[in-house]
Amino acid sequence: MFLQIIDILGTIAFAISGVLVALNKKLDPFGVFIIAFVTAVGGGTLRDVLIGQVPVFWMKNLTFMYVIAGATIFAVIFRNKLDKLRRSLFLFDTIGIGLYTVVGIEKGILADLHPIICIALGTMSACFGGVIRDILCNEIPVIFRKEIYATACIVGGIIFFMLEALTNLSTDILFLIVGLVVIAVRLAAVIFKISLPTLYKG
Amino acid sequence: MFLQIIDILGTIAFAISGVLVALNKKLDPFGVFIIAFVTAVGGGTLRDVLIGQVPVFWMKNLTFMYVIAGATIFAVIFRNKLDKLRRSLFLFDTIGIGLYTVVGIEKGILADLHPIICIALGTMSACFGGVIRDILCNEIPVIFRKEIYATACIVGGIIFFMLEALTNLSTDILFLIVGLVVIAVRLAAVIFKISLPTLYKG
Amino acid sequence: MFLQIIDILGTIAFAISGVLVALNKKLDPFGVFIIAFVTAVGGGTLRDVLIGQVPVFWMKNLTFMYVIAGATIFAVIFRNKLDKLRRSLFLFDTIGIGLYTVVGIEKGILADLHPIICIALGTMSACFGGVIRDILCNEIPVIFRKEIYATACIVGGIIFFMLEALTNLSTDILFLIVGLVVIAVRLAAVIFKISLPTLYKG
Predict the structure, then answer these.
(1) CA pseudo-torsion sign C33, C39, C44, C48
(2) Host H or E run for residue A11
(3) Most buried residue among A76, A169, A194, B179 by CB atoms closer than 10 A?
(4) d(Cα B137, Cα B143) in Å, to the nearest integer?
């Protein structure tokens, strides 16, 4: 129940971020909805397809479809006031990537995949919706350029498998810790303006 | 037999629309063929992958490959005269999306998915070939911006499930009606210059 | 063993070509790695998804992940000296597409698909990593525009099935010949500056 609420909050935050990008590109209502949808579920969809969990998750649980439709309508109507919600949205989004990372790792473990692949799946679940959004909007994906986003997911994933090897904590506790780590790394990065070291001089 | 002829006409129209975009981007012969191919089968391929119907349809029925190759060669040779065929092409294309919508809905029903997902699959089958074409050609997908295209498919899909719930019509008749509805909505939208309400002022 | 070494050399060459494009686009370290990864395994991943071989190959064999990570770090550090390696890299890349073509054809045969589809799968394995790389970097894929690349794979594939029908050569020998043909066509095209006939005048 608690997890589901977080999942829905994360989906809302992702969908709204999609709406904002789509409005910026002057898309029509259909385009706006598709971008919101893809931002929210694109990463998990890619994950499910690559590991063979089909039909993909949002086809089997309509909650996502409804939540995204609602969030899209809300965001379109109140777009001029979303600025006031920016902090809440950022928080939901951050909680969302924490949760999505955990879901991806869990699916990888269930599919009996190597820890490194599980971490990749967690990162993909959390980040690739945004990548597909940016491609559809004809931009180079923002997470390839400047935001600490994927890094938070990767750090969380590594800590999961380290703690799993070294401690006797239950998987549920581990997932909770990982989610919090992802959130903490992302928050710290934004607050202290940390980014990945640049590869370019000057 | 009748359905197969329509399917082939739709595939031809989609492939030719791909060729025209690709020529516009000055692609080489290989690029032109790939864009034609992707425009014609991309939507159905995405649908098959997401619901797990693999190998995807055009790998099991080579007709598509042959028809697209033929249409590509035809379109490249007669490209300067295609203008005269514009009306026929538009008609084929419109019939094509009607049919592709039906095929997508049918596949969704066979996979035991919820009506909303079936409608999404129908729309995807009809529209996402064009989306992938535009992404490969480095454009924001045109159906996200101005054309009533997806909307026609969605309306058709809704009418299918409404009629199914309210009447005793056979599925074949329903599919025929849906195809005609999609075609009618699209034609009406183009003739009366209807588009989705804009989200932007001035 | 021999095949595996070639496979690794090809993967390295593909990954490095990804790094160079990514650095050119000023991506951050995470972006550079993802582009390297996608360039190296994207074609095979698409192939595996379309024929239903999931989880996809690099999830079941971590060698690819390690090799690409190593190649990325190497390429980032020595990027200013890569110019001196250009010939070696071109050679690896060319050997890589020869091998990837063979792997794709083989997977198609194992999945019991028609020779034309097998040739398409071989070409996809060899070429679509670069296509996905270019899309992620917001470019029209280079192989749709000017390079003889896919054509070499297609020629190799056709020769495979011709020889298979006309001779008694073992599959291993055929694959060796095909790999060499792909390499020869590509080398010849580059050395003699052959490209596909243009569809455009003046």
Answers:
(1) positive
(2) helix A2-24
(3) B179
(4) 14
A143 and C30 within 8 Å at the Cβ level: the answer is yes
Q: Which of B118, B146, B148, B199 to mutate to test the interface with A (most CBs of A within 10 A)?
A: B199
Instruction: Give, in order, the Cα–Cα distances in Å from C102 to each of A38, B98, C91, C106.
Output: 35, 39, 17, 6
Rg (CA), chain C: 17
**Helices and strands: H and E segment counts in chain B:** 8, 0
Query: Rounded mean pLDDT of B24-37?
Result: 91
Burial C93-111 (b: 16+ CB within 10 A, else e): bbbbbbbbbbbbbbbbbeb
Tokens of C61: 């064999």
| String of DSSP letters for B71-109 | HHHHHHHTGGGGGGGHHHHHHHHHHHHHHHHHHHHHHHH
Cα angle C89, C92, C98 (rounded to 5 degrees) comes to 140
Confidence bin at C10 (pLDDT 50/70/90): confident
The span from the CA of B125 to the CA of B24, in Å, is: 25
- pLDDT bucket at B59, cuts 50 / 70 / 90: very high
More confident residue, C147 or B154: B154
Tokens matching residue B43: 């939507």
- Pairwise CA distance, residues A94 & A180, whole Å: 10
Q: Which residue has the tokens 């073509």?
A: C101
Give the A:B interface size as CB pairs under 8 Å.
69
- CA A197, C42, B117 angle in degrees (round to 5)? 105
Is A144 in contact with C62 (Cβ distance < 8 A)?
no
- Domain segments of chain C as ranges: 2-191
Residue C3: partners with Cβ closer than 8 Å, 6 or more residues away: C99
Structure tokens at C57: 């190959």
Query: Whose CA is closest to B181, among B163, B159, B164, B166?
Result: B159
Q: What are the chain B neighbours of C200 within 8 Å (beta carbons)?
A: 23, 26
The answer, for C52 touching chain B at a CB cutoff of 8 Å, is yes
The 10s digit of each residue's pLDDT in B158-170 is 999 999 999 999 8
Does A49 touch chain B if contact means CB atoms closer than 8 Å? yes
Helix (H, G, I), strand (E, B) or coil at B200: coil
* Closest C-alpha among A187, A131, A125 to residue A154: A125
Residue whose C-alpha is closest to residue C185's, from C161, C164, C157, C146:
C157
Spell out which residues of chain A touch residue C62, defining contact as CB-CB under 8 Å: 114, 116-117
Residue identified by tokens 């082939």 is B8
Measured between beta carbons, the chain A residues lying within 8 angstroms of B140 are 25, 27, 136-138
Q: What is the residue type of C89?
A: L
Is A63:A56 a contact under the CB 8 Å cutoff? no
Angstrom distance (rounded) from CA B96 to CA B42: 14
Token digits for A94? 């951050």
- Asked if B140 and A25 come within 8 Å (Cβ–Cβ), the reply is yes
Contact A93, A153 (CB under 8 A): no
Mean of pLDDT over chain A: 89
Cα dihedral sign, B132-B130-B5-B82: negative
Three-class SS of A32-77:
HHHHHHHHHHHHHHHHHHHHCCCCCHHHHCCHHHHHHHHHHHHHHH
Q: H or E segment at B61?
A: none
